[in-house]
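User: Could you check the structure of this?
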Amino acid sequence: MLMSAADYRESLRRYAPRVFVDGRAVDSVADEPSLAPGVNAVGITYDFALRREHATLMTARQGTSAKTVNRMLHINETTTDLLYKLEAVRLVCRESGCAQRYLSHDALNGLFQATKRTDDAHGTDYHQRFLAYLHRVQDEDLTLGVAMTDAKGDRSKRPGAQANPDVYVHIAERRADGIVIRGIKAIVTGAPYMHEFLVMPCRTMTPEDADFAVCCAVPVDAPGVTIVARPAGRPGEAAAKFSGRYGQSTGVVVFDDVFVPWEHVFLAGETEEGGFLTTSYATHHRHSCIGARAGFGDLLIGAGALMIEANGLDPDRHGHIRDAMVDLIKIVEGFFACGVAASVYGMKDPAGSIMPDAVFSNIGKLLLATQIYDMHRLAHYVSGGLVVALPGPDEDHNPETAASLAAVLAGRPDIPASQRLEVARLVEDLTASNQGGWYSMISLHGGGSPEAMKREIWRNYPVMEKVELVERLLERGVADEGQRVSKQPGRCCATGCEVPEIGKAAE
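Assistant: Sure, the predicted structure tokens are below.
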């Protein structure tokens, strides 16, 4: 059953997670003001799925159950599914900045592939367990947090060699009815307002690291789970024109001897398949990140155009402004085009699902990760210096200053100063506030560092095909030369110069 945003908020009240924000315990996540922007952002994915005009993008038919489900929980079956998912993520993120729930989609798709591969290799029944779990999640329209990034400890050492094994989540005990896990996941998007966590390995493992190759589902309020989180956005701040309403919390999640029944365990020591899950999830997630940051780019393009208008400039007449806007558009649509290509060139996985092309997914994510700062710079350039010289929003209602400020801070005479100030504050909130810096950081490191994407591009790019192409051309050139020389043995063109036989030049 598809929920609305109100249903989602109400569903959070059925859980009682142990959550701390800014050093204090949170009694009710659904009613906590500091988390409200995050709840609002995820809520967009629920409400948009119920709107008729968005149904094609935001819902899909699940092949394994024949039920209509939220796109954020769907297993992709065609390249069209990939394209619709990309567009859906852009749609919800242009509204919310970052709707976060697409991580649920990415993890579920990676697990669909990995559990099938594990069963085929080891004769396990993980895939059937996962399908039962998937269908319940879809039926209840849940939102899942991806608990993937471990604390890691000493980065020079593998998980099994750490002085404190709890810097990686690992299996502490195996029992007849399930497993017990311990450790810390350091970065979990939206952690306080998730329904459940999908615990996943964050790197490839060796056989010595088998206890760390674990994947399982854990309710957000399971005994032994503690969430230490930051506020979502900038709730309550008058200047937070966007992030006061929409934002993103992240949390450190501590698993302190948490019991997981076998039906919710999807990997338990299969190191090779754990590594595959890590890279499979990363490809799905980087593909989704492209749509997410394109949606954020839509906000910057729209805000930039409004600022240009309010400043009294015309891109058709002021070439430097037009060029900057074109550069911003080029960046956004350039990395989004990689997402489209990754969708079109998606490959069928042995599990039966479809996988976005790894090269285009990683190139698109690498472009947005490294160009997010250029996006901010260009938004600042076209907006002008008012963004950094804004008086506080309280001055808008100060009888001592409001009138004089309105008189001098207006741009075009037909656009009120208040409108120009509102757009300038929006640009500041998105790019120059602590929230703006946050968007930059999650764009750079979310879904893996740029180095991780470079490795995946190099690992998957068909360099040898290009080498073989050039070798064939060189061989053809040599063959053509031999064919030409054979017509006039020992002679070069019309000059009659003596030439050595082919293959004898080096002697």
